[in-house]
Amino acid sequence: MTQSFRLESGGLINRDKKISFKFNGKNYFGYEGDTLASALIANGVHLIGRSFKYHRPRGFFGAGVDEPYAIVQLYRNGETEPNIKATEQELFEGLEAKSVNCWPSVNFDVGAINNFLKIFLPAGFYYKTFMWPKSFWYKIYEPFIRKAAGLGTASIKHDKERYEHKYEYCDLLITGSGPSGLASAYSSAKNGAKVILAEDKSRFGGTLLTSDVNIGNQSGKEWADSIISELKEMPNVTVKNRSQVFGYYDHNMLVMSERISDHLPKTKKYHPKQRLWYIRAKEVLISSGSIERPIVFGNNDTPGVMLSSAAKEYMKVYGVLVGKKPLVFTNNDSGYETAIEFKKNGVDPIILDTRKEPQSEIIEDAKNMNINIKNSYVVVAAQGYKKVKSADIAKISDDKEELGSVQNIKCDCICVSGFWTPTIHLASQSGNKTKFNEEIDAFVPGVSKQNEKTLGAANGIYTLEETLKDSFEKGNQISKEITNNDNKVSFPNVVEKKSTVHDKFWCVPLPKGKNYKRFLDFQNDVAVSDIEIALKEGYRSIEHVKRYTTLGMATDQGKTSNLNGLQLVSKIENKVVPAVGHTTFRPPYSPVSIGAIVGREVGKHSKPTRKSPMHSWHEKNNAVFVDAGVWLRPRYYKRGDENLFEASKREAKNVRTNVGVCDVTTLGKIDIKGPDAAELLNRVYTNAWLKLPVGKARYGVMLREDGIVMDDGTTTRISENHYHMTTTTAQAANVLSHLEYYLQLVWPELNVNVVSTTEQWAGAAIAGPKSREVLKKLFPNSDVTNEGLPFMGYMEADLFGVKAKIFRISFSGELAYEVNVESDYGYFMWEKIIEAGEQFGIQPYGTEALSTLRIEMGHVAGSELDGRTIPYDNSLEGLLSKKKDFIGKRSLSRKAFAAEDRQKIVGVVPLDKKTSIPEGSHLVKDSNAPLPNPKLGYISASCWSVEHDNPFSLAILKDGKNMIGEKLFVMSPLKNKVIPVEIVSSHYVDPKGERVRS
Amino acid sequence: MLHIKCPHCGIRSQNEFSYGGDATIKRPELGKEISDQDWDNFVYNRKSLRGKHWELWQHLSGCRQWIKVQRDTATHEIFKTLKANEEIS
Ligand SMILES: [Zn+2]
Predict the structure, then answer these.
(1) Interface ipTM above 0.85
(2) Which of A460, A492, A576, A868 is most buried, most CB within 10 Å of its CB?
(3) Which CATH number fits the domain that encloses residue B15?
(4) Do A938 and A997 share a domain, yes or no?
(5) What is the pLDDT of residue A119?
(6) Which of A166, A248, A251 to mutate to test the interface with B (most CBs of B within 10 A)?
(7) How far does residue B10's CA lie from ligand 1's centre (Å)?
(8) pTM
(9) Domain check: are A302 and A272 in the same one?
(10) CA of A276 to the centre of ligand 1 (A)
(11) Concatenated DSSP letters for A749-782?
């Protein structure tokens, strides 16, 4: 296929490098430096999709980020991505793209029937049409809408690409590399400021690439190139293309997405696809330029109707003609520049200017080039379905109310210019109170809330000379304040053509008897008539009109539609535009991929993985791991083809009969030192701590101020003023913050220091009736007899030359010890324990057996201490001191907490002694009671009791104290189970606690 | 993301801190009689102010100190930060 719309020469593309690509299954080629849009237009393709609501044919409207139509599904290196703007996607070898919004195809579209039924799809049609009957939603409306609408399909495959996050600080962040961005970057960089210059497009220079100007005897592009190459050489400057600053957040933090690999057929090895920059800038200079706005007329969404600046950009940057019989419809001088460019390339344009007798240098030039200019003329309607074929034009009266007789002229494109709208999104996001500028008929930034300033066209300054002067100066001033340098930059001589004022004309009236659709929002298909309906129905606030009609709510955020929408509302409401006000701009300025936002924190990288020093031993011994918070812990050690149930039963049983060893390194450990350490413990724990002797451990429970149990654990008095506290794995960080809170803010008079030592110690629990035998072999020189090291005793001992701490504490309910050594000796300790325990049948046990052992003992853990229970609920009321006050005590006397029939922990056994009880199930009196069946309690933890060889669970049950012996039902609607059960004591094994003291 | 000036470490990003609630609430003294209403006010009842607000933050990933921050809840402007032992004036 030949590129019939490619100019013989010109443009910034590399004509030596052909690139082949596919669109809707058809092969085409373009050149290096093309966008998908420019390459398609070069090939004469203008039908790119269907509109969202009416499924009208869609072409190209812009040439960049403002594009409302040309959204495609992209295929790259085996992956697919929706919501890609063809005007932004750079062409690469093998690129494939497909239309969205069309079913079954772009040329024959079933949904286009909506276009002919449009009477049924006016403003608010989503609200009105699809609301009733409610039952239709899932089966009929939603599938239909999903199939017929949408902006492409998200991939359900795992994204193999890498996305990175970067944090950066700078003195000045400059957003956009047009004339204002370049000038301010240059002068501030010369003052030694740390500058980041971000350009959204691949090429630097902004409008300098397309305008006929001269700066310091260079063309605009040459000047831009020389400034950029100088900036790139400066060590204090970071220059980034393909990088869009899309969000302005609090305290001058901005977020930028850098598209590193999207323009390549394949991401290079070790490169990310995109990088998200979090930039904290001392000052922000917004140099985001302006976007041309359309003039509203009949069928103004027909493919071939586009912004005049886009038509110029396609010629000047890509060497592509958007049409060979162009009509330029303008209310200002910009349209003339486009027309002149056409003429220079041998194409004869016709200019329709809404103004009566405009005079300026540019207009004079156009006249001298013999361009056909019709003053006081408008386009009434575009004609043609899939592409503009002709235009109905007419003369318009001076008051712009009356149309003359309509005539039809042939054309293949209509290039529209309704003047320029400053891109104030970032300024508005920063909290800037924008103001309306009558002269340019648009909003510009006003009073800043954060450290930002807006330059050039984004600030409504539309002449190059003024823009450059202002930007050089602002860059110099702001950087001077930061660096104290004042290196003046000499101002270059600027040559530009002078233009005259624009005509504040934005919407062509309908000719008598015609009812053309005149679109305001091209992406969401919002027409003039929709806004009229919304206002008729009583919507007044622009925010409500926006939501009701979806004006400006599409992914383009109304870049081309907002102002015309406001003009319309203000006209109907008879208000001035500033009184109507604009809707809030929110980040992102343009869509950002989810991948970039998530960054590297996916899958296993979503949180750090912590491993104990014994991890590699567990791995070597067939441990199956489980995530316990951020830790990886052995769940069980697989032998042969055992499953979880079999293995954990074996391990637990071995603890009850012989001896087992469990890695308890993950337990939180806090070192507490200072003369007031005992006093601190006495205040934060519910029981008494002042008289704990040195060398003894004590179990303690901590409450929150609201009386809820926060954590439990043992604390050991190592020496007079030194304590070693343990916490649960999950609460370790919270407990430390809790202690710091009271020490720093509430009781600063207490002389105590706390520090986390979780990582400093490796821990092993040795549990079972034969554990003392193992200990004797490990510590032959220490007295570990029941007298020498009694229950809740502590000693320091020598483990074959390694200093060890032995705590005689038990979670399993058996005779048990916890041995701690410095982390680096953890593996050594573990191996020694296994070695010493061999003759006693020692087996390592994982978290599953650990749970079994504690559950059948009735020891509470995280599933009972879940932030909803008080000490009584867990049968911990015996630990509440009556003599002293402690954190949370006062709350326990609140009425509900002191109720007679308050919930309490109980044991639950199925009547058949066989059926396992799912955790989280409810306990009810009557399994056949009508719903909602009153819930008496819930199962907090379940296991297979190895002592009794039947299922056993713990439950938190209403009036649990008086329920022992009752028969109830466990119901799990999720698992579809109803199990008759008996309520028993929560202490299912060794209720007197004799074993731990043996 | 806020930028908070830790009085001990200097300006740091919000993600190094954790929020700790109203800084003007004083814990009732231990062991002192207190009415149900006063206790509820201490534990539960908080004003949700729009505007200037003294609040607690802990510099969790930094010096671990609890600090007092005066912030505008509507604009996020931070006016002042104090060490734990400095009184709010
Ligand atoms: Zn700090």
Answers:
(1) yes
(2) A460
(3) 3.30.2270.10
(4) yes
(5) 47
(6) A251
(7) 7
(8) 0.89
(9) no
(10) 27
(11) TS--EEEE-GGGEEEEEEESTTHHHHHHHH-TTS
